[in-house]
Amino acid sequence: MYVLLVVFSIIFFYAAFKQATASELKFNTQNVRELWQACSMQFKMISPYMPQETRMYLCDCYSDYMRTTFTPKQVKELKSEESKKLGTKLKTLCPIPSPQPTIDT
Questions:
Q1: What is the pTM of this model?
Q2: What is the share, in percent, of the chain residues with pLDDT greater than 90?
Q3: ∠94-65-13 over CA atoms, to 5°?
Q4: Long-range contacts made by residues 31-37, C-beta under 8 angstroms, separation at least 24?
Q5: How is the chain split into domains, by residue range?
């Protein structure tokens, strides 16, 4: 359920932001950051006790999949049913890791 909400939120937030032009990358740097931030904020709302490292891992995975699979226009045009299927797919492609990931700095 939470994956579906994250996907819907990402699509909603991304739709509010400008599209990349043909001369730019599919997703410019700002688009990727906004996509990632929307994912992170949604996970914070849905699972406030999720460790930060886990949230970062999941949002990296979700964002990487979205930007390598879709164009900004395709993301904006995703229908509700397509978003549900995408949420299920992302849940499989980006499972919550066990043990929880750590970030080495």
A1: 0.69
A2: 34
A3: 100
A4: 31/67, 31/72, 32/63, 32/67, 35/10, 35/63, 35/66, 35/67, 36/60, 36/63, 37/13
A5: 2-93
